[in-house]
Automatic annotation (TrEMBL):
Keywords of this entry: Coiled coil, Signal
Stretches of the chain forming a coiled coil according to its record: 254-281
Name assigned to this protein: Chaperone of endosialidase
Signal peptide: 1-19
């Protein structure tokens, strides 16, 4: 029984050991370099390659690349990295030349000690390059920026925490290139809600002042111009509160105009009564 148990453990270790093929290479130069290839049959395959540095002259960094390549232009690529930085390589892609397909890495600097791991699972496994990595090329079928997690330009989580949907380079905590559908959107902001407009000492710009401003600038006071929105985008929280402020100011103007109309009606009624009184005399 003990012998059988030991044999089972050895078999398990053997499976773990042979589950990956390793290699060491040099990038040779900056730019796109091939790290693995699938020979023949149009490069049809799927699998996983890991690129990493062990330390020494280089900070330990690891990036895992999953890919799939079909007969023609059908291909997909995904990256995953638990490292906090990506200073040695920027992006990955899968290319082909009509016969073979290639997994390529865009190196940001020359690295003389690049370690490669090929997981021995998948279909039509790739072969790792060794020595000096050859330059990349061919037709690009899919690509992704190196990040904590990235699926081509469909979804990405950058090392700085920015999340992008439909964009490979999100410039905010969440950047969406496309329509957003939601059942509810709630924005929390530290911008003061403009209830101060109704304070007794708040001075509302006269309509004449607003007219003069609009004639000169072609937009309402405090509201960004079309050129500003085109350049900087639209801050929805700020814009909603600015619009609320304009509605409140407009409400004050309407209240004032209503009082003026009431006053006019009152005077007209008095004048009418005086005229009637005069006619009766």
């Amino acid at each position: 029984m003990k012998q059988f148990f030991l044999f089972s453990i050895l078999c398990l270790w053997a499976n773990i050991i042979i589950a990956q093929t390793s290699g060491t290479a040099s990038s040779g130069a900056m730019g796109w370099r091939r790290v693995a290839y699938v020979a023949g049959s149009g490069g049809r395959s799927f699998g996983r390659v890991t690129v990493f540095t062990e330390g020494g002259d280089y900070q330990p960094i690891v990036t895992t690349i999953d890919w799939a390549h079909d007969w023609s232009s059908g291909a997909g690529i995904r990256v995953n990295s638990d490292s906090q930085t990506t200073q040695y390589w920027r992006a990955v892609r899968i290319t082909d030349d009509g016969t073979n397909s290639y997994i390529e890495v865009n190196f940001a600097t020359t690295i003389n000690d690049v370690h490669l791991l090929l997981d021995n699972y998948g279909w039509r496994l790739a072969t790792l390059y060794t020595g000096t990595l050859p330059a990349g090329g061919g037709t690009v079928r899919a690509s992704a920026n190196v990040a904590r997690f990235g699926i081509e330009d469909k979804f990405i989580i950058r090392h700085n925490g920015n999340v992008g949907i439909g964009t490979a380079s999100p410039q905010a905590k969440l950047a969406v290139n496309g329509a957003v559908l939601a059942t509810e959107v709630k924005v929390k902001t530290d911008i003061a809600v403009p209830d101060y407009v109704f304070a007794p000492d708040y001075e509302v710009a006269t309509l004449a002042e607003v007219e003069a401003y609009v004639k000169e600038h072609r937009h309402l006071p405090e509201i960004p111009s079309a050129a500003d929105v085109e350049k900087d985008g639209l801050d929805l929280a700020k814009m909603n509160l600015l619009l609320l402020k304009k509605v409140e100011e407009l409400t004050l103007h309407l209240i004032e105009k209503d009082k003026q109309l009431d006053d006019v009606h009152t005077r007209l009624n008095r004048l009418e009564e005086q005229n009637k009184s005069t006619d009766n005399q």
